[in-house]
Amino acid sequence: MFQKRKILLILIICMIALAFTSCSKTPPAAASDPNQPALGQPITKSDFLLGTVVNITIYDKQDESIINKALDRIRAIESKMTINNADTSEIIALNQAAGTSAVKVSTDTFDVLERGKYYSELSKGRFDITVGPIVKLWNIGTEEAAVPDPQVLLEKIKLIDFNKLQLDRSTLTAKLDEPGMQVDLGAIAKGYAADEVAKILKDNGVQNAIINLGGNVLTIGGNLKGAPWRIGIQDPFNPRGEFLGIINITDQTVVTSGTYERYFEENGKRYHHILDPRTGYPADNDIASVSIITDSSMDGDGNSTSVLLLGLEEGMKFIESQKNIEAIFITYDKKVYITSGLKDNFVVTNSEFELMN
Ligand code: ADP
Ligand code: MG
Predict the structure, then answer these.
(1) Which residue puts its alpha carbon closest to atom 10 of ligand 1?
(2) Measured from the CA of 275, which atom of ligand 1 is nearest?
(3) Which residues surround ligand 2, an ion (CB under 5 A)?
(4) N- or C-end of the chain: fewer Cβ atoms within 10 A?
């Protein structure tokens, strides 16, 4: 049910993004040939990929084949990294060979594994790319989601250790040292896919576009007026696509992780999908959601999940210690904290929220 709610939410976010970004005047449709869209009209296409709604909108070129190429690229990435199709997935092959042998993977999968290991190290294991055993156990985002037996959970967290993921770039191989270990790329694969889509669009001459992969928003250029894109930041307490503020960005990404994104409720308690490897339970701190603003969507994705696990104080230090990364933190008490680089291009538009710095 929450899956449907999420899809709806993302569609609404897409609509908000469009409402904010397509306000430049476009010339009226002049073409009589229906296959030749009028100049100046954005073209847009949505699909359900990587477990989420993908939406690509190009503003300066009326060539649908570019979007189709991009969607094919996402499908190829999905088939290699999914944990749902054993026939194609390199990640399932890697997990099945855990404790036994190294597995050859594509450069796509290798790049994502390597970046996942990097964020595992950077966050000192709060983000951990080998979190798979407990992701499977909780089943959040599926009909089977349930609070696991605490004893089983304690056993499973022992299997989480990114230091036991061996990566060898010279042979493009990966190996998990212990049987039962499992990699899960859910926290960064969408970011990687968004970056790959941007490459395809740019290689095909696109200069103004918005790519949205389930809340991972990546922009190319600015809008047709030459101004930055205005992107709405989701209100984490309102599931109906309402936003609490607006960020202006050009050629950058906004990646949001929130405890509202995917969850289930049991005995009146809410359990969300970002799990703390130390306890096995969902991250439990002051942050309701965080949006990262940076150049690469994979880095945005790695950082947003890490910050959600680190909490406000540590998360703020984590972001400030890296170059060219900004963040908007929203706490459960409706306070909004931003990093220093955002002072001039972020505004809170919902007065229920208080901007703290
Ligand atoms: P979303 O998928 O909603 O955009 P995230 O980018 O924050 O959100 O990724 C959440 C996903 O990351 C989870 O669904 C799970 O697959 C994975 N995950 C959960 N906990 C961790 C963790 N501690 N470290 C790394 N990945 C995690
Ligand atoms: Mg993430």
Answers:
(1) 187
(2) 20
(3) 187, 301, 304-305
(4) N
C-alpha distances out from residue 142 to 6, 243, 261, Å: 12, 26, 13
Instruction: State the amino acid at position 68 in one-letter form.
Output: N
**pTM for this model (two decimals):** 0.90
Q: Which atom of ligand 1 is nearest the CA belonging to 261?
A: 3
CA of 6 to the centre of ligand 2 (A): 16
pLDDT in tens, 31-53: 344 444 445 689 999 999 999 99
CATH number of the domain located at residue range(s) 79-176 in this protein: 1.10.3980.10
Please provide the size of the chain in residues. 357
- 164 bridge partner residues: none
From the candidate CATH numbers 3.10.520.10, 1.20.1250.20, 3.90.226.10, 2.60.40.1840, the one assigned to the domain spanning 7-63+189-355? 3.10.520.10
What average pLDDT does range 258-266 have in this prediction? Answer: 86
235 lines ligand 1 (CB under 6 A): no
Judged by phi (left if over 0) then psi (alpha if -120 to 50, else beta), residue 141 lies in left
Q: pLDDT per residue over 208-249, tens digit each?
A: 999 999 889 999 999 999 999 999 999 999 976 799 999 999
